[in-house]
Amino acid sequence: xxxxxxxxxxxxxxxxxxxxxxxxxxxxxxxxxxxxxxxxxxxxxxxxxxxxxxxxxxxxxxxxxxxxxxxxxxxxxxxxxxxxxxxxxxxxxxxxxxxxxxxxxxxxxxxxxxxxxxxxxxx
Length: 123
Known about the structure:
The protein is mostly beta strands. The protein has strands spanning 2-7, 10-13, 18-26, 33-39, 46-51, 58-60, 68-73, 78-83, 92-99, 112-113, 117-122. The strands form two sheets. Strands 2, 4, 5, 6, 9, 10 and 11 form a seven-stranded mixed beta sheet that branches.
C-alpha cells in the first residue's frame, strides 16, 4: 500500500504561483511513477503532469506546459507541482497519484490516489 497526502493548495490571484506537495509513504513509494491530475466542478478528472520514478522524464498536458513543473525528491518521498502564471481556468481540486508502471499518463493506469487539495484562482 502507498499513502499519498497533498498539501499547498489555496486561493491565489491570476498570474500568481503555488507549489503543491504530495508526501508518499508505504511500500517503496519512491519506485513509482507519479502524476498530478485535477478536477474542476462538473468536469471529468484530467491529466496535468507525470514524472518517472527517477525523475529523468516528465510530461505535461498542453494546457499547463511552460507554466507548471513537476519534480520529485525521492529522499523525502515527495513530489511537487510548481504552478506559475496561474489562470482562473486552473481552478480545481488537484490530486496526486502513484503508478506501479514506470510511466503513466492516464488516470486508469494509476494505482493509488491522494484525497486532493483545492486550488482556486481568482480573476
